């Protein structure tokens, strides 16, 4: 099969000015190098060798906003390109949401699990993130602020968080909630 690269942010979500995040890239092979691109231009980051690479953004500014991708190269040949990951740097204007999970942090496989992201704002929508995933798992709107996983499987296990926003003249963002680990037995 074709070589694929996964790309994701750790921690996921919109970053505040001055904040930090890590762009993580991984590939099934480990004999090449990762090169980071932003808006189609190669960044002057070191080439990282192996099957995983992490590129840090610290003290983020508006200038760090952009479309990032990883290329996996061997010699001068590009073997694979990741999807494009949008990195957004924005001030947080909303209160920090609270993420909860029912029936609890540890569940048996096959159980019915509900994630709830609660924020003190009447018209906010929220994203549910699972660390290691390329995109937000789900967009939760105010009329439906629960995300149900049923039946839960072992691959639903992981570190979850949520982040909320309002769509007025411009997007206003909250901070990312505290993380919550789901364990599936």
TrEMBL record:
Record-level GO BP terms: immune response-regulating signaling pathway
Gene name per UniProt: Igsf1
Protein name as catalogued: IGSF1 protein
InterPro entries cross-referenced by the UniProt entry: Ig-like_dom_sf (IPR036179), Ig-like_fold (IPR013783), Ig-like_Receptors_ImmuneReg (IPR050412), Ig_sub (IPR003599)
Coiled-coil residue spans: none
Domain Immunoglobulin: 10-90, 102-185
Keywords, sorted A to Z: Disulfide bond, Glycoprotein, Immunoglobulin domain, Repeat, Signal
Pfam families: Ig_2
């Amino acid at each position: 099969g074709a070589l694929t690269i996964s790309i994701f942010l750790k921690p996921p979500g919109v970053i505040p000015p001055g904040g930090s995040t890590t762009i993580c890239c991984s590939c099934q092979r480990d004999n090449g190098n990762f090169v980071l691109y932003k808006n189609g231009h190669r960044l002057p980051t070191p080439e990282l060798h192996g099957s995983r690479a992490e590129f840090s953004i610290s003290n983020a500014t508006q200038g760090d906003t952009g479309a990032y991708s990883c290329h996996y190269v061997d010699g001068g040949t590009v073997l694979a390109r990741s999807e494009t990951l949008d990195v957004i740097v924005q001030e947080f204007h909303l209160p920090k949401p609270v993420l909860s999970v029912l029936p609890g942090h540890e569940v048996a496989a096959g159980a019915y699990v509900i994630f709830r992201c609660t924020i003190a704002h009447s018209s906010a929508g929220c994203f549910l993130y699972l660390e290691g995933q390329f995109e937000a798992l789900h967009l939760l709107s105010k009329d439906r602020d629960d995300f149900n996983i049923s039946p839960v499987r072992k691959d639903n296990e992981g570190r979850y968080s949520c982040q909320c926003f309002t769509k007025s003249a411009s997007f206003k963002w909250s901070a990312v909630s505290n993380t919550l680990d789901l364990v599936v037995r």
